[in-house]
Design goal:
Blueprint lengths: L6 H38 L20 H46 L6 H52 L13 H32 L1 H6 L8 H13 L16 H5 L1
Helix pairs in contact: 1-2, 1-4, 2-3, 2-4, 3-4, 3-6
C-alpha cells in the first residue's frame, strides 16, 4: 500500500529523498571536521593536554599513559558523534517516509477521475485505508521517537549554551594570534553540528504537518461531482478525518515545527 504506483509518484517523492540526502551529507560535512579537530588536538598541543578534561587516578602526562588515554578519548568521542548522527538521520528518515506517504495519497486523490462508479468507489476506499495506515504508522513512530527527541533537544540545547558561553568569553584578539588553540575551531564546528541537528528535526517535522494539511484539499481536485451519494459521504468522512494534521511531538511537551527553530 505504501509503494509508489507509477513513475510520476516516484518522481514526486524523489525530491524529499534528495533533500534528506543533502541534509545527510551536510551533517556528515559538519561532523567530520569535529572528529578530525579533536583527533589533531593532542598532536598540536605541546603541553600534552587531553582533548577532553577528565580526572584520572594517574598522571596522564606520562608516557605511555597519555597516549593510551588520548586514544581512548578519541575513540569514545568518535563513536558518540557517529551514534548521535545516525539516530538523528534515522528519525529524519521516518519523518520523510511519513511525508512521502502523504504526497502519494494526495496524488491518488487528485487522480480519482474514473467515470465508472464501482471503480471510483474502489479506489476511494483504498485511499481511505491508506490514510488510516499513515495515521497508525505516524502514531507508532511518534511513540518510538518521542522520548529520543526530548532527550536530544534538551542535551543539544544545554551543550549549545555552554559552547556559546565559552566562545563569548574568548578574546577577539586571539583570532589573529598564531598560537590560537584548535579548541576554538572545534567548538565553532560543533555549534554548526548541533544547529543542523535541531534544524533537521524542526524542518522535517514541519514538512509532515504541511503535507498532511494538503490531503483534504486534494480530494476536491478529483472528479467527485458526478458520482453517487455513498461515494460523496465516504469522501466527506475522509475530509473530516484529515482535518487534523499529522503532528510529531517530543514527549507531548512541544510539536516539531519551524516555529521552534525560529524562536
Amino acid at each position: 500500500m505504501f509503494q509508489p504506483k507509477f513513475l510520476g509518484q516516484r518522481l514526486l517523492i524523489k525530491r524529499s529523498l534528495d533533500f534528506w540526502k543533502i541534509i545527510y551529507n551536510t551533517f556528515t560535512a559538519a561532523g567530520g571536521p569535529v572528529i578530525i579537530l579533536w583527533v589533531l588536538l593532542p598532536l598540536m598541543n605541546k603541553s600534552k593536554q587531553l582533548p577532553l578534561s577528565f580526572w584520572y587516578p594517574y598522571d596522564t602526562k606520562n608516557s605511555p599513559l597519555f597516549e593510551i588515554t588520548c586514544l581512548h578519548q578519541i575513540m569514545s568521542f568518535f563513536f558518540s558523534v557517529i551514534a548521535i548522527f545516525n539516530i538523528d538521520m534515522l528519525v529524519a528518515a521516518l519523518m520523510v517516509f511519513i511525508g512521502t506517504q502523504c504526497d502519494i495519497l494526495c496524488d491518488d486523490l487528485r487522480n480519482l477521475h474514473d467515470n465508472i462508479t464501482a471503480s471510483f468507489s474502489e479506489n476511494l476506499i483504498k485511499s481511505i485505508k491508506h490514510h488510516q495506515e499513515i495515521l497508525i504508522f505516524a502514531e507508532r513512530c511518534n511513540e518510538y521517537i518521542s522520548f529520543i527527541l526530548l532527550g536530544q533537544f534538551l542535551a543539544s540545547s544545554v551543550i549549545l549554551s555552554f559552547i556559546l558561553y565559552g566562545l563569548a568569553l574568548v578574546n577577539v584578539k586571539v583570532l589573529f594570534d598564531d598560537s590560537l588553540d584548535v579548541r576554538f575551531f572545534a567548538h565553532v564546528v560543533l555549534v554548526v553540528f548541533y544547529m543542523i541537528q535541531i534544524f533537521t528535526y524542526c524542518w522535517f517535522g514541519n514538512e509532515v504537518e504541511v503535507k498532511s494539511n494538503k490531503i483534504p484539499y486534494s480530494i476536491f481536485e478529483s472528479d467527485w461531482t458526478r458520482h453517487s451519494l455513498t461515494n460523496k459521504q465516504n469522501m466527506m468522512m475522509l475530509i473530516v478525518k484529515s482535518q487534523k494534521p499529522i503532528r510529531l511531538s517530543a514527549y507531548n511537551l512541544f510539536y516539531l515545527s519551524l516555529e521552534i527553530y525560529i524562536k
